[in-house]
Amino acid sequence: MSVEQAPVQRADFDQVMVPNYAPAGFIPVRGAGSRVWDQAGRELIDFAGGIAVNVLGHAHPALVAALTEQAQKLWHVSNVFTNEPALRLARKLVDATFADRAFFCNSGAEANEAAFKLARRVAHDRFGPEKNEIIATVNSFHGRTLFTVSVGGQPKYSDGFGPKITGISHVPYNDLEALKAQISDKTCAVVIEPVQGEGGVLPADKAYLQGARELCDKYNALLVFDEVQTGMGRTGELFAYMHYGVTPDILSSAKSLGGGFPIGAMLTTEELAKHLAVGTHGTTYGGNPLACAVGNAVIDIINTPEVLGGVKAKSDRFKARLEKIGQQYGIFSEVRGLGLLLGCVLSEAWKGKAKDVFNAAEKEDLMILQAGPDVVRFAPSLVIEDADIDAGLDRFERAVAKLTQG
Question: Transmembrane ranges (predicted)?
Fold first, then answer.
């Protein structure tokens, strides 16, 4: 029996929600694959993927089945007990990566919070309280808690909330000399996104990550990779560190890990994990059976040669067409990224106008993203059909044509 729900509209947002977001003017109500429908029944193609989250699109039958099956069994028991889905997912992640141990939480910020706390704890236990400095990169993004936003290299997100967490410094991304100049025996961790996501879809150079690994080894610091946006097949490998052949000590994952169901994970080695002994860190919902059941279904599908190979092919299809559009209309100076995390860098004439491109695309029934004011970002489903890619890019070209031709 369904209870009659009161109708809602976009205007309600401005009445009842904290105004920290400025959502689009329509409300999506249903999704299937890479298509989304709004309240009026308008069909949009989704190239945004819930900001690199809906890794298998909308309402994927395997995820729906995993969630509903688990929902009939067990929702929550807390970490006073463990549960089967959590143990299965941890085993799969450990078997597929460098890690020996997993810690589950509910978001990327929480995964990073755990990673940073672990890094400081390890240094504290092994070398004493002086070794607590964290080096991150300019324009990085690691979450919105006070700790993670302080580590993130974007003052616009961290200013105005009182004293910041100290012992954190920021060096330019992809600049090994700057890292070399900053790192010392007081450094406990170096934190890097293999591709800067919010900072403009900027991939790391292989030599930069290799150099960071060597510096961390030299100074007894831990190398932390924030793979919240790059993980779970997004780059065409299960995690981006595999693409580069550089192994971190700690890795954070979220976004795509649950395909849309909130879950985060911190992965690390047995040696390091020992430092988070009973009582040192925790979370009420972390590793709950619903999230982990969905996560199991996600990794079973994604960690296959078909899907990972498909990401590379779909990436090439996107890139070729985006480069063509960029040249034809003079709107992009570069198309960059890895796999299905792509950024189109706006040309001089269009600098600062990513929001205009977003709005123009929406008018053509296409959902895209921006990564700062100068980069248009695409993070679609990893299993998006080629026909949807082509149709969506047709819509995108129409939007760009209207925008550039006034």
Answer: none
